[in-house]
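Quick one: structure tokens for this chain, please?
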Amino acid sequence: MSDQLQILGVRVQPATAVSEEDAAHHVQERLHVLVDVENSSQATLHVWSARRAFEYDATTHVLTLHLAEAEPKLPPDIVLISDHPRVPSQVTVEAGARATIDVPVPTTVRRRVPGEGLGMSFVEEPIRQIDQVALHVQFADVPFQQVVGESPSDHRDRLRAHGHVVRTTLKPTGKRSSKR
């Protein structure tokens, strides 16, 4: 089934500056990862177009983008106390058509590190060089929609079960400079 949606390529555009007003609201500049997809099926597909999660490995220079509902993988010492799943942004890709999905990505990644005392410690690391982009893109032949009164756990279960996920790792074209 995942052969219905093909990921043709990925491009990474340089970070865009934010306005003073956005900066005052703690909005940071973002990279733009452009994901080119093609619907090779005979039906219209609804493709998730917003980042649900992301990871960056500074050692391997791999940026992983989840445009799909990820399986839960909280660290064993973390308890989820507030769960508010949301309806994913989706783009419609007609049968046989192509589309480009623009995925804004922060220019830094926040990583948990050992700390002293109570609470958790984090460090922010810049995303400097991207040699590969690992993509997880979810799609279906019907759009995902909100169900009024649904519990967060039922909503999240439906998100995970909806449609299919295509996964691939590609070398980006139009890479940003590794100098920063």
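The longest strand covers residues 5-16.
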